Amino acid sequence: MTFDIKIKCRRGHVFAKELYPTKHDMALTLESNNNKTMRLHKQFCHLDIQQVKDTAQKLGVNVDDVNNKINCEDCKMAKAKQKAVPKKDETKSLTPGERLCINSSSINTRSAKKKFWILVEDQAISMKWSFFVNNKKDQVNPIIELIKEIHETTDWKVSFI
Fold first, then answer.
1. For the chain, how many helices (H) and strands (E)?
2. Domain parsing of the chain, residue ranges
3. In this model, does residue 71 exceed pLDDT 80?
4. Does the structure show a pLDDT above 60 at 88?
């Protein structure tokens, strides 16, 4: 297939090919309207019913007597939502060192040599430690060193991060 039509656009050109209906497309006129609408819905990348009707009308395919609802399993799966995860932790630790919370953010200054700031907070006593790293993947070593230091200098046991 060659794209022999050149259409000028704002940022350049788009190449196109003029297509003509085949016998397979003509079979749409013999189908029942509900099957025809579902088939067109899938062919037109799961458009809503009104857009399917408008496009079919422009193509000369009759889909007038169709209810306004398409029962498409693929569309139902795409619109399904996952259960929301709560942002707040309901089980707050009361033991120092048991649960460390980590937050990271980028630093947007020209003079900063390190690009990311890592904040570690003990959930029970709100003690905080800060680290600065070049990449997010570099945050592992400072946190491991912090946990080792907590174990060596205190009797706290870190259970959750």
1. 5, 5
2. 5-79, 83-161
3. no
4. yes
- Give me Rg for the CA atoms of the chain: 30
What does the alpha-carbon distance between residue 31 and residue 155 come to, in Å, rounded to a whole number? 76
Residue 79 pLDDT grade (very low, low, confident, very high; cuts 50, 70, 90):
confident
Cβ neighbours around 97 below 10 Å, total = 20
Give the integer Cα–Cα distance in Å for 64 and 29: 12
Q: Are 142 and 132 in contact (CB under 8 A)?
A: no
The three state secondary structure string of 66-104 is CCCCCCCHHHHHHHCCCCCCCCCCCCCCCCCCCEEEEEE
Burial of 36 (0-12, 13-18, 19+ CB in 10 A): buried
- CATH top class, domain 83-161: alpha beta
Give burial (CB, 10 Å; 0-12/13-18/19+) of 118.
Answer: buried
> What's the rounded Cα separation, in Å, for the pair 124 and 95?
6
Strand order through the sheet with 128-133: 100-106, 116-122, 128-133
Lowest mean pLDDT among 75-79, 130-134, 137-141: 75-79
pTM of the model: 0.45
